[in-house]
Amino acid sequence: MINNNKIAWQNPFAKDRLEDWRVEEFPANYKELVSCFAPPGFMDKLEDPSITKALIIMGGRGCGKSHILRMLSVQSVINDIRRKLNKKELIMRDYNRGYFGVYVKSDCFFPLSTENISFLSIDQLNPIFEHLFNLQIGRAILDATRFFCINFSDIPKEKKAKIWLKIAGRTAILRGHTFSEIFNSLDSEIKEIQNFVKLFPYEKDFSKFRENLHFTNTPDFILELFNIIRNEIEILSEKVLFVLIDEYEDLDTYQQKLINRLIKQRRLIFRIASKIKGIKTLERIDEVHDYEIIPLHFDVSRETRAPYKRLAKDIFVNRLNLYDSFYKEKDPGRLLPSLTLKYEDLTEEEIQRELKKIRNDLTKKKNIEDPEVYRKNFEGHYRDAAIYRLLRQKGKDKLYAGFDEYVALSSGIIRLFIWLCRGAFSLARQNGMRIEEGQSIDVHTQSKAAWEVSKRELTITIPQNVTNQYGQKLGRFIFDIGSILRAKLHFSTQPQANRIEIIDSEKFEDEDYRIVRGLIESGLDLPVFLSEVSFKPRDVKYPMPESFSLNWIFSPLLGISLEKRWRTELKVEELKGLCSTENRTETLEKIIKQIEERKRVVRKKDKQTKQTSLFPFNDKKIPLNLSNCPVTGVGCNQNLIKYSLSEIKAKAFLAIPFDPKSWVKDPRRWIKESMHDNFKIRCVDVDDVEVKGGLILCKICSCVRQMPIGLFEITEVNPNVIFELGMATGLNKLNFMLVYKEKIPPNHKANFPPPPLEGIEYTPYQLSPASIAETIQDKILPTIENTKKERQVSCWVLRGNCPNMKVETKEGKIFIGMPFDKNQDFFKTTERLIRELLSQKHQIVVHVPAKTLANLCQMCKAIRSSSFCIIDTTYNDISMMFGLGLAFGRDKKFIQLHNTSLSSERPISDLRPWAIEYTNLAELKELLRNDLQIRLGDL
């Protein structure tokens, strides 16, 4: 802790970059570096020595990736252990990590960059870089070992001397009898490489340098050195070596190729930090098998910001804890209080009047698809806009204050959060506020600090970091985007529209738009723009995103809302105009005028009158009848309608996971919007449906039974989606399986779709609105149109005719599905118990989980021909969930079993009306004895 009685006040947020601690020069600073750190949720994964593939932390400037990587180094680990144990002296058994991490920053390899060297070929550079790589990693190992020996009191001097003695003389490079001598010998070899680079262009004779360069092989040199150390220090004998490479983007392509070779071999374990687009080559390595990207990006939307907010709070508290008891209050929510209406000089009555104006305006708008949907969460959508508009009428600026507001303003970039806190603390101190006594920082001071950080980001950060031709243009471009967003905020019915969508992004390939493309890419790299697409480098082409948002840190300066609830559509030609000195003013004024006059049209809209009900079609209504609804026990009570594929207006349903924190929230919206806006197909999911009783199963049933077309997002092989796929298959719906390959779970990447779906036809898509629209246009619509003309395919999983489609149901035949492969003995006993309770007149057919598509077809045939099904979904097995859906779709009587003691993961949250949950066989027997005969009826 810092002794505050002996020093002047220091801003606890003064340090914002890893380099500020200067730990190479002052190792004692590791203590403070570690104390300030708050681990992200994936830290355990980084520290897991059993994960031998390379883990690459990828994020933008200021997101904290270097700090995270440095925390894996031996020096940080030892200080972290000392802090947690609260011990001045450590002994070796206190070292409880399974790895020995050595940190290098890639600028140490800069002397061999092709930017500096044009007189050597890549083939000539490769062995020199390999040697330099060995030397720098070896140097890091020695430095970490010395730190280790110094900080553990039970390592005797004789042991240390023995280590240095064993290292010395192993190669011509490692010379001396003490650590300093050996360390200096390594440094001397590194200097020889630097001298070679400087002098070779003049000497042109390699033989003059040969005597002083002693080439080594990697990873042999590194492993030999580390093995000497861990063989002598017993506690390290089972530890693995972590090679930590920071600023990976600064390595040349040929240098990354060498690292790739080492990653592939897995003799060294790599943990790497890289900027977005920092990977220049994937030669020799494959994702999943050899490396994994860990994106360091935090979504700060209201519904998903909780993890980042916790991280920001931990960092805030840790920084104040450095000063021991100096700060009486350390809760950021109290030191940074949020705004209330009185600070804005507004009243609730004024806001409600403004909201009423907006509501009236919305009902006048002719092209509203569904006024009820607009009004459903009206105040939540438009309250911020009402506040901004009232402040504009009063000539006042919006205030930005509060811990939550600072979290949002920082846009998931922790350095921006630190800057905001630093500014607030500094201004509060200047204004005489006793924050150390727990006095809150008033909202005006907080807002001024936010404005200053916002201005600094635009006027200092951009010019310092974008030194190419785009630097000056980028600042103006941000101002122009802000002006457009501000116009929408004040005049549009879609006010919070910080989601810029480029509707014709394919034009970026044209040379005429090179400048605007380069400008946006520079903004994404910084990042002052936040991309909505994944930056995982599958082919290292890094596609141009079709949508992005403005970093929220600019909100105070530009006077705009933080939210990105709606889209702001722009054409590439308009972006080009904003980047042109001659056309900028005219282009901006034209866009703003269109917004103010409500005449802006970017896409051509359908001029037909919009319908407002959920299923608003004038087609002939065919009622759906069920006999075995598991909810009612008899027929369906939802008044369902069967819509035909041959109807003029097509209808579809979307089966997709429903996690508001998941990546699927965007494709869910884009798929439905694209189907409707671009192709006039009404696409609904369970969230669009209101049913009696509100059960999720009734919502699923309403969608799947009524709609003739099904879209199934199966990327994560979600059990509910598989259930819906089985149900649609039983109903012979036209099905399309959608997959976003970037998000396939690691355990399925090598073999997707996993058994038994392996081999089915699926439709890949990319994560952007335009790409999804293109996928629907090219892959889905032609099949729909062809099927309307001639319905030839009878199974939309197999994409072919199925001989089992017309199989007859056999009275008294009972299908039993059990997950024998997970717990064979238990479920064999379960099967016998069920057989004992059934009558001998029943024909019983038992199926295990399907392993192939052929097995799944046999299961499908058995379910179709059965009159009753008993299916255990304890482990959410794909085939069992598919079979359960199939039985439901075919209107079978069935019982679902689920053992909650073996698996707590229940498929579909409200199975309770018909499922039997049990914890042991005795309980199951009792439940089945009471229930089975009732459900079987006359079978």
Which terms would index this structure?
939 residues; alpha/beta; Rossmann fold; 4 domains; 5-stranded parallel β-sheet; 32 helices; 21 strands; 43% helix; globular
Provide a descriptive summary of the structure in words.
The protein is an alpha/beta fold. It folds into 4 domains: 41-295, no CATH class; 467-602, no CATH class; 622-789, Rossmann fold (3-Layer(aba) Sandwich), CATH 3.40.50; 813-936, Rossmann fold, CATH 3.40.50. The chain has 32 helices and 21 strands. A 5-stranded parallel sheet has the order 2-3-4-1-5. A 5-stranded parallel sheet has the order 13-12-14-15-16, with helices on both faces. Helix 5 (122-151) runs antiparallel to helix 7. The longest helix has 30 residues, at 122-151.
Structure described in brief:
With 939 residues, the chain is an alpha/beta fold. Helices cover 43% and strands 10% of the residues. The strands form five sheets. The protein has a five-stranded parallel sheet with strand order 2-3-4-1-5. Strands 13-12-14-15-16 form a five-stranded parallel sheet, sandwiched between helices.
SSE layout and pairings?
Layout: H1 30-35, H2 43-47, E1 54-59, H3 65-70, H4 74-85, E2 99-105, H5 122-151, H6 157-167, H7 179-203, H8 207-210, H9 220-232, E3 240-246, H10 253-265, E4 269-275, E5 291-295, H11 306-321, H12 332-335, H13 348-364, H14 371-376, H15 378-394, H16 403-409, H17 414-430, H18 443-465, H19 471-491, E6 500-502, H20 514-525, E7 529-531, E8 547-550, H21 555-558, E9 568-570, H22 572-579, H23 584-596, E10 622-623, E11 641-642, E12 651-655, H24 665-677, E13 682-684, H25 696-706, E14 709-713, H26 719-730, E15 734-739, H27 746-749, E16 763-764, H28 769-789, E17 813-817, H29 824-837, E18 843-847, H30 853-865, E19 868-872, H31 878-889, E20 893-899, E21 915-918, H32 921-936
Parallel strand pairs: 1-4, 1-5, 2-3, 3-4, 6-9, 12-13, 12-14, 14-15, 15-16, 17-18, 17-19, 19-20, 20-21
Antiparallel strand pairs: 6-8, 7-8, 10-11
